[in-house]
Amino acid sequence: YLLAYDEVRKQERSRRELKSLWYGLDYDPAQSTFLAASGNDWVYEVPWVNGGFGEPRKITIPGCELTAGVAWLGVGNAVVACNLNHRAIQFEVSTGKVLATAETGEYPYGVSVLPGHRVAVSNWGQSSVTIFDTSNLKPLATIPVGSHPNVMLVLKQSQRLLVACSDSDFISVV
């Protein structure tokens, strides 16, 4: 399920039961819409309406086995990491149409949008992060990091990427 909690009132604000959820979650404030990975071959599009989760829509991603990290690329497009078949897929949210596909490292996990029309994918099974060009998902670089990289945080002012590495118990700075 998705849960929105009001920290000020200390109460549940909204809850949406979904058949399956796994890791990936992203929000686009311009569209007031969440994308949530199912851990299957689809992503949910969930609108935020009147202070709560609206009716979800299932978007099947052809060629994706186990959706993991997901990120909006801007109005209408997103990228999802496909964990079991080691791919990143860029897709059109309204139709599910695949726009680009790229090989990643082993067991891609997290997805973060970077400045300069780039996207980072953490390769959990390969101890690396791959950077792709968002216009065509061409790989620009694969950077070694600690063991089992997962969550990433972009520090825009310093143009750095922080990568949590769960089995190394440290954060790699890229």
Question: Any chance you could write out the topology, listing elements then pairs?
Answer:
Layout: E1 2-6, E2 11-16, E3 25-28, E4 33-37, E5 42-49, E6 52-53, E7 57-60, E8 67-74, E9 77-82, E10 87-92, E11 98-103, E12 108-114, E13 118-123, E14 128-133, E15 139-144, E16 149-155, E17 160-165, E18 170-173
Antiparallel strand pairs: 1-2, 3-4, 4-5, 5-6, 5-7, 8-9, 9-10, 10-11, 12-13, 13-14, 14-15, 16-17, 17-18
Question: What would you say this structure looks like, in words?
Answer:
- The chain has no helices and 18 strands.
- It is an all-beta fold.
- Strands 3, 4, 5, 6 and 7 form a 5-stranded antiparallel sheet that branches. It has a 4-stranded antiparallel sheet with strand order 8-9-10-11, with no helix packed on it. A 4-stranded antiparallel sheet has the order 12-13-14-15, with no helix packed on it.
Care to count the β-strands?
18
* Rg on CA atoms, Å: 16 Å
Structural class: mainly beta
Proportion of helical residues: under 10%
Mean pLDDT: 95
Annotation keywords:
174 residues, mainly beta, five-stranded antiparallel beta sheet, four-stranded antiparallel beta sheet, 18 strands, 0% helix
In brief:
It is built from no helices and 18 strands. The chain has 174 residues and is mostly beta strands.
